[in-house]
Amino acid sequence: MAIPSLLIASLIVFSLPRLIPGDVVQLMLEEKAYGKDLEDLRAKLGLNRPIYIQYVEWLGHVVRGDLGESLWTRRPVLEELARRLPISLELGVLALLFAIVISVPIGVLAAIRQDSPADYAMRSMAILGLSVPGFWIATLCVLLPAIWWGWSPPIQFTAFSADPWAHFAQFLLPAFILGIASAAAIMRLTRGTLLEVLRQDYVRTAWAKGLRERVVVLKHSLKNALIPVVTVLGIQVAQILGGTVIFESIFGLPGMGRFLFDAINQRDYPVIQGVNLLIVSVVVLMNLIVDAFYAFLDPRIRY
Amino acid sequence: MPPEATEVAPWRDRVGTPGARAAARPSRLVALWQFCRRKPLGALGGFIVLVLLIMAIFAPWIAPYKYDETIPGARMKAPGAQFWMGTDNLGRDVYSRVVYGASVSVTVGFGAVLLANLLATLIGITSGYFGGAYDICVQRVVDAWQSFPFLVVILSMMAVLGPGLLNLILALGVLGAAAASRVIRGTTISVMQNTYVEAARALGAGHLRIMVRYLLPNVAATIIILATIGLGGAILAESALSFLGFGVPPPYPSWGAMLSGSGRSFMYRAPWMAIWPGAAISLAVFGFNMLGDALRDVLDPRLRGGGGRPVS
Question: Whose C-alpha in A254, A293, B249, B310 is 20 to 30 A from the C-alpha of B201?
Fold first, then answer.
């Protein structure tokens, strides 16, 4: 199932950037004199051959772990990605962690106190969380402290080796804001599915046995309620990875999202293809992990 | 029939067809009133949406200035009696720009959702109805399409198409179709279990007739819900793209674009430039989400849960 999806995805990944109007060769000739003329430069970069040959060749290289090199900097894409991927992963994982830690307990609380004022408040908060654009909160988080207290988040990126604590601290704010929308979605789903499970017969049996609320909710119900939630986690990973494009730009993190954004503006085909392919692979891998996780949550599912 | 039907029943006997048409009106009003009573938050959402629509349609009459009008001697004025939301670094009235911005959001939102749901209905109903190899092929393409992070695809698409209102609608519409088509396919399959579909086939109805006359009306509720929730998402996506510079080109005011670009460095001295457009986005999306949630509860309880996915 994963392989055909990946193949189709690779075709989209390859053809999409080539449709971008504006020719990289023209753009490059204007900025720097790489070659004698357009044709010479095009031949140098291997862009003068039929597009399907370029695709097959590119795919062949990808399978052998070679993503080509940037048309502008002539540095291998893979090398650049290896440097930037950890930053985006750190941001993404932290955001997902924030989202889960906040949303699941709130979702459980809202479900067991259904239709109480607290439930209404938490649900409204969740809808609000889905409605507020992350880049606006991020802008305000940079802007307002600077006006009020003269504090602003560091512009310069700190490497882990230089100062581990400062390195970690610079991710906290962007990761938290990035996680808000996912938290809202996960909270709503947790509440919805838990309510459904709580109405089932076996839960009534658990109550009838005289078990405490903690045990009924957390041990008997939550595990079943989490199955759809785990499915959505796979989708949330994709959303969070997409969000890194915005947040890395606002907070000055040299990650993959920013790399992609710059590459799109410069029509750097190998870079766009490489980043997109990597992101898609991460998402497909994540969905595989999610599938495997089902078996743990629900022993009836076998592969 | 609900109890209020007995109240309007005498009307119906008075005259023929016109009377029957008039009878439908009060009962619809009653239904609206009941909706407001049962779903106060949904009614609030509906109210916000109504205000947004009025703002979008009547922007030239509501806004005190034009969106690109530079007011002499009014650079970065703080909010006050003359400029309710202050002015920006070019001396333009922020309130007027927010009002005009509503029409960008509404145009893109409705256009994208209309396109997305048209495509999704076409894909979803045929995929669910025919099944088999066609269904498998279509669903694999939808899979691949969905495994891309939303923002990454849309950025790539906007880079292909170039900035502009129509291209934005096209990109958002095509992208929104994939997820919606999944839900519509699921609903179609469950509707097909009904015996009336079997009966229609037994009576000799063709594929097209079954899909249009029997499946479509029963899937309509799902489509309406998806559209309402999708509107909020489309407006949010439009603002994010405009923020990144791939949306509606300046000077036309899009709420997202007002938060980015050359004005950003002036926001430290004029924070109202950053606050109002963002608040407008949040409120508009909040309205659509609230309304969509309430509609979903009323029209189709099966869809309760998160993110418009059918539970179980």
Answer: B310
Report which DSSP code applies to B238. H
B305/A239 Cβ within 8 A: no
Residues B126 and B119: their CA atoms lie apart, in Å, by 11
Decide if B99 contacts B156 (C-beta within 8 A).
Answer: no
Give the global pTM: 0.78
**What is the DSSP secondary structure assignment for residue B87, as one 8-state letter?**
B
- Residues of chain B short of pLDDT 70, as ranges, are 1-26, 74, 147-148, 160, 261-263, 300-312
Give the angle subtended at the CA of B208 by the CAs of B203 and B210, to the nearest 5°: 45
Find out whether B228 and B119 touch, Cβ atoms under 8 Å.
Answer: no
Amino acid sitting at position A148: W
**Nearest residue in chain A measured CA to CA from B234:** A131
Q: pLDDT digit string (tens) for B237-266?
A: 888 888 888 877 777 788 888 887 666 777
Three-state secondary structure of chain A? CHHHHHHHHHHHHHHHHHCCCCCHHHHHHHHCCCCCCHHHHHHHHCCCCCHHHHHHHHHHHHHCCCCCECCCCCCEHHHHHHHHHHHHHHHHHHHHHHHHHHHHHHHHHHHHCCCCHHHHHHHHHHHHHHHCCHHHHHHHHHHHHHHHHCCCCCCCCCCCCCCHHHHHHHHHHHHHHHHHHHHHHHHHHHHHHHHHHHCCHHHHHHHHCCCCHHHHHHHHHHHHHHHHHHHHHHHHHHHHHHHHHHHHHHCCCCCHHHHHHHHHHHCCHHHHHHHHHHHHHHHHHHHHHHHHHHHHHCCCCCC
Q: Tell me the C-alpha distance between B312 and B246, whole Å.
A: 38
Nearest of A230, A229, A244, A163 to residue A192 by alpha carbon: A229
- Say whether B271 and A235 touch across the interface (CB within 8 A): no
Burial of B297 (0-12, 13-18, 19+ CB in 10 A): middle
Chain B residues in contact with A23 by the CB 8 A cut-off are none
Look at A71 and A111; give whichever has higher pLDDT: A111
Q: Please tell me the distance in Å from B132's CA to the nearest CA on chain A.
A: 16
Between the two ends of chain B, the Cα-to-Cα distance in Å is: 31
Distant-in-sequence, close-in-space partners of B77: CB < 8 Å, separation ≥ 6 = B83, B86, B87
Tell me the C-alpha distance between A55 and A14, whole Å: 7
CA of A225: how far to CAs of A99, A124, B5, in Å?
Answer: 17, 21, 41
A49 has a pLDDT exceeding 80: no
Cα gap A49→B292, rounded to integer Å: 50
Interface of A with B in 238-297 (CB under 8 A): 238-239, 241-243, 245-246, 249, 260-261, 264-265, 272, 276, 279-280, 283-284, 287
**Among B residues 139-198, those touching chain A with beta carbons less than 8 Å apart:** 140-141, 143-152, 155-157, 159-160, 162
